[in-house]
Design goal:
- Chain A: It is a multi-pass membrane protein.
- Chain A: It is found in: Cell membrane.
- Chain A: Its cofactor is FMN.
- The complex is a heterodimer of chains A (384) and B (207).
- With 384 residues, chain A is mainly α.
- Chain A has two domains: 14-37 and 53-210, no CATH class; 268-371, no CATH class.
- Chain A has helices spanning 2-14, 24-34, 53-83, 91-124, 132-141, 149-164, 177-188, 190-193, 221-226, 235-240, 252-264, 270-290, 297-302, 306-313, 324-344, 352-383.
- Chain A is globular, with a radius of gyration of 22 Å.
- The mean pLDDT of chain A is 85.
- Chain B has a domain at 28-153.
- Helix content of chain B is 66%, strand content 2%.
- In chain B, helix 3 (39-62) packs parallel to helix 7 (113-121) and helix 8 packs across helix 10 (185-203).
- The chains are: A mainly alpha (384), B mainly alpha (207).
- The interface between A and B is small, with 11 and 9 residues.
Chain lengths: 384, 207
C-alpha cells in the first residue's frame, strides 16, 4: 500500500489552493486509474456495477494486446519477407523490428489524444474521461504501418475533438472515435491509406529490418480482389494473419483471443458481435450466389478489417445500439453493409469502417424504434 | 434622417457580426458549402449575393407601397430573378471560368433564404436607403463567412490561395500532403460549425 500512501501524501498539492492545482485533473485521472475511487453519487437512486468504466477500459486494452503483439510481429514479417531475408532473421529480430515500427504510433496516439483530453478536462473542471484509453490503442492498429506520424497526430486530434468532446465526452459520443480518426485519414490522405504501396514498412529502424526499394508495392488480398485478381494467399495465412494489412487487423486468431476475453468478462455484447458476423455471412452468400464476388463467404469474414471491426469497434457500448433487440439489428446492418461496400463499390476495397460509421449513425434511431415498439405492444396488451 | 445616422450604422453593421445571416440566423448554408472549395468562387459568389441583395432590397423598398399584399412573394421573385439573370450574364461575359465553377449556384441565388428573408423582413417595411444598407450589410456578412471558409479550405486542401501556390515544394518533399477532406463539402460544414463555435464563444456569454 506504499503507492496508496504516497498518493494520499501528495494529494493536498493538487486540491483547491494547492500549488499544483492546475494539474488536478491529471492527478485525479491517475489516482482513479490506479485505485477504484470510493466516491458514490450524492443524489437520486443509482445502480452501481461491480467494476467502473476505467476497469472496463483496461479490460478492453488487455483484450487488444494479442492483436497488437501479433500486428507487431506481422509488420516485421512482411518487411523481412518482402526483402527476402526472412530465413536468416530470428523470430526476436522480426518482432523487435515490428515493435520499433509500431511503438511510435501508439505513443503519438496516446500523447495527442490524452493531451487534448487532459487539457479539456482541466479547462472544463471535469474529471478526465477514460474513453481514450481504448481509442488510443485501436487507432494505431487500424492504420497502415507506413502512415506518417504527423498525419496520425492530426487524425487523433480531429477525432477526439469532433467525434467526442463536442458531443460532451465519453458516453455521449455518437460516433466511434477510432473510426472517426480512420475516416479522417482515409478521406484526407487517401493515397497514404489505401493502394498497394502502404502496407509494408519500407525503412530499416536502428539497423533492424530492411530498406525496401522505392516504389515497392504489395497489395492486400482485398485490394487484389478489388482489381479483379484472385488472391493467391492460403487460408492458413489468412487465419493466422501473415498477410499485408493494417497493423492489428490481420490475425483472426489474435482477434479471436481478444473476443474471448471480451465475451467471457461480459464487456462486449455477444448479440452485437454475432449478428455482425451473421450479417456478413448472409450478404457474402447472396453476392456469391449472384456471382458478384469471387471469394467464398468465410474468406470475406477473415480478410480485411471485418473481424477487428466486429469484435472491437462494433461492440463499443457507447456508440452501438443499447436495446437488446436493437443490438441484433445494429450488428446485422454493419455486417451486411461492410460486405455491400466491399463488393459493390470499386473505389473502396474495404467497407468495415464505413459500415461501422453507418451503424453508429443509425443506432439511436434503432433504439428509438425498438423502445416505441415495446411501448405500443404494452399499450395494446393493456387495452385487451 | 441623416444618411449615416446611428440607426443606419447599426443596420449596416449588425449583419456583419451579431446578426450574421450565416453564423447567427444559419441561412444560406447550402451555397456556402458548395462554392467554398476555392477562394475565388467564394469571393465572386459573396459579391454577387451582396449586389443582388442590395439592389433587390432597394427596388422592393421603393415600390413597397404599391405591391398588393397577396402577390408580394411573386413580385419579389420577379425582381430577384431579373437581377440574378443580369448578374449571371455579366459573370459569363467577364469571368467565364468562375461562372463555370459556380455553375448552378449563381442561378440558385434566387432561392437563397437570405435574399427572401431580407425582402420580407426589412425591405417591405423600410425606406430604400436603409434597405440598401441592410442588403449590403447582409450580403457582406454572408461574403465574410464564405471568404473565411473558402480561404481555409483552399489553403489546407490545396496549399494555395486564389490559385497562387503558398506552400513550397520543399514542404511536400519533406512529407507534407494536402488534406483531401478539405476539398469535400463535408469538411466545409465542419469548418462552418467551427466558425460558429468561435463566434459564439466570443460574443455570446452564457448568463
Amino acid at each position: 500500500m506504499n503507492l496508496r500512501n504516497y498518493l494520499n501524501k501528495i494529494k493536498p498539492n493538487f486540491q483547491e489552493g494547492g500549488k499544483l492545482h492546475a494539474f488536478e485533473s491529471i492527478f485525479d485521472g491517475f489516482e482513479t486509474f490506479l485505485y477504484v475511487p470510493n466516491r458514490t453519487s450524492t443524489s437520486g437512486v443509482n445502480i452501481h456495477d461491480a467494476i467502473d468504466s476505467k476497469r472496463i477500459m483496461s479490460m478492453v486494452v488487455i483484450a487488444l494486446l494479442p492483436a497488437m503483439l501479433f500486428g507487431m510481429y506481422n509488420v516485421g514479417y512482411q518487411n523481412y519477407l518482402a526483402a527476402g531475408t526472412l530465413a536468416t532473421a530470428s523470430l526476436f529480430e522480426v518482432f523487435l523490428f515490428g515493435f520499433l515500427a509500431v511503438l511510435p504510433k501508439i505513443l503519438v496516439s496516446y500523447i495527442v489524444g490524452l493531451g487534448i483530453e487532459f487539457a479539456w478536462a482541466q479547462w472544463k473542471h471535469e474529471e478526465i474521461q477514460e474513453g481514450y484509453l481504448v481509442s488510443g490503442i485501436i487507432i494505431p492498429l487500424i492504420i497502415p504501418v507506413t502512415t506518417p506520424l504527423w498525419m496520425l497526430a492530426l487524425a487523433c486530434a480531429f477525432a477526439v475533438i469532433f467525434c467526442k468532446e463536442i458531443f460532451g465526452g465519453t458516453g455521449m459520443n455518437i460516433f466511434n472515435v477510432a473510426v472517426g480518426a480512420r475516416m479522417f485519414l482515409f478521406f484526407s490522405y487517401s493515397s497514404k491509406m489505401t493502394g498497394d504501396a502502404v502496407w509494408v514498412a519500407q525503412e530499416s529502424i536502428l539497423g533492424l529490418g530492411n530498406n525496401l526499394p522505392d516504389g515497392f508495392t504489395m497489395a492486400t488480398p482485398l485490394s487484389q480482389i478489388g482489381q479483379g485478381i484472385l488472391p493467391n494467399t492460403s487460408i492458413y495465412n489468412m487465419v493466422t494473419g501473415l498477410i499485408p494489412g493494417s497493423i492489428g487487423e490481420t490475425s483472426v486468431i489474435a482477434i479471436g483471443i481478444g473476443a474471448f476475453i471480451l465475451l467471457w468478462t461480459g464487456i462486449a455484447s455477444w448479440k452485437t458481435m454475432s449478428s455482425v458476423f451473421f450479417g456478413g455471412v448472409v450478404m457474402a452468400l447472396i453476392f456469391k450466389t449472384l456471382g458478384m464476388t469471387p471469394i467464398a463467404w468465410y474468406e470475406h469474414l477473415i480478410l480485411g478489417g471485418f473481424c477487428f471491426g466486429a469484435v472491437f469497434m462494433a461492440t463499443d457500448p457507447v456508440t452501438s445500439a443499447r436495446t437488446e433487440t436493437g443490438k441484433y439489428i445494429y450488428g446485422f446492418m454493419i455486417g451486411a453493409m461492410a460486405i455491400i461496400v466491399r463488393v459493390m463499390n470499386p473505389g473502396y476495397p474495404e467497407g468495415m469502417m464505413l459500415a461501422i460509421f453507418f451503424g453508429n449513425m443509425f443506432a439511436p434511431l434503432i433504439d428509438y424504434c425498438v423502445v416505441n415498439q415495446n411501448v405500443s405492444r404494452r399499450v395494446n396488451r393493456l387495452k385487451k | 434622417m441623416a444618411l449615416f445616422s446611428k440607426q443606419n450604422k447599426e443596420i449596416f453593421c449588425n449583419p456583419l457580426n451579431l446578426d450574421n445571416p450565416i453564423m447567427v440566423q444559419v441561412l444560406g448554408i447550402c451555397s456556402s458549402l458548395a462554392v467554398t472549395s476555392l477562394l475565388k468562387p467564394a469571393i465572386v459568389m459573396g459579391l454577387a449575393v451582396t449586389i443582388i441583395t442590395a439592389f433587390s432590397n432597394v427596388i422592393i423598398a421603393a415600390i413597397r407601397n404599391t405591391i398588393p399584399n397577396r402577390i408580394r412573394i411573386i413580385v419579389q421573385l420577379v425582381v430577384v430573378a431579373a437581377l440574378v439573370t443580369i448578374v449571371s450574364q455579366i459573370l459569363k461575359a467577364v469571368a467565364y471560368d468562375v461562372s463555370v465553377q459556380l455553375s448552378v449556384y449563381v442561378g440558385l441565388i434566387i432561392t437563397n433564404c437570405i435574399l427572401m428573408g431580407r425582402l420580407e423582413a426589412f425591405a417591405m417595411t423600410n425606406k430604400p436607403w436603409p434597405s440598401f444598407l441592410d442588403g449590403v450589410g447582409n450580403g457582406l456578412g454572408y461574403a465574410l463567412i464564405l471568404v473565411i471558409v473558402g480561404a481555409l479550405r483552399e489553403f489546407v486542401g490545396r496549399g494555395s490561395l486564389l490559385g497562387f501556390q503558398l506552400i513550397p515544394q520543399s514542404a511536400y518533399d519533406a512529407g507534407y500532403m494536402n488534406n483531401g477532406m478539405m476539398t469535400m463539402s463535408a469538411m466545409a460544414l465542419i469548418l462552418l460549425g467551427c466558425v460558429i463555435w468561435v463566434h459564439r464563444a466570443y460574443f455570446y456569454k452564457e448568463k
